[in-house]
Amino acid sequence: MSKRSIKDMVNALAKVLKEHHAPHEVALGVAIGAFIAVLPLYGFHTLLCVIAAVLIPRANKLAILLGTNISLPPTIATITWTSYDIGRLILAHKRYPPLSWEYVRNFNISRFSEFYYPLFTGSLVLGLMCAAVFYVITWIIASRMGRKHSLGK
Questions:
Q1: How many CA atoms lie within 13 A of 150 on its CB side?
Q2: Which terminus in the chain has less CB density within 10 A, N or C?
Q3: CA-closest candidate to residue 79, choices 69, 70, 88
Q4: Angle 137-141-144 from CA coordinates, rounded to 5°
Q5: Cβ distance 127 to 34 under 8 Å?
Q6: CB atoms within 10 A of CB 84
Q7: Residues 91-119, mean pLDDT to the nearest whole number
């Protein structure tokens, strides 16, 4: 990698960090990232972040990426289990089996749709709930940090 391309990348990163840093824009970015993180589209979260950054230009782009960090290995099982259970509640008329370690152990590809449909449905609801919670928390923190920063000038 040449010095020129490294310098261009650093300048691009600095531009992203400087733009859209109002509390609403940062909170919106984190909320979008949190929503994406809950979706069971494993392996596509980064691509979805890029698409969201393009489609929602007022959101802080770095915050979108940071928001996806709620879906790390320690939290994936909890997110998946909760999403599946929410989906089962919403789709109660279909009588999907409860998620258990035995169900997971005996899982095979033929049961994929039986598992994925309630998982995806529940993840939409859980994602919206997480997005709302993370928006509020981030907005409060960003607002306070902005006030402290402006007082320090």
A1: 7
A2: C
A3: 70
A4: 140
A5: yes
A6: 26
A7: 82
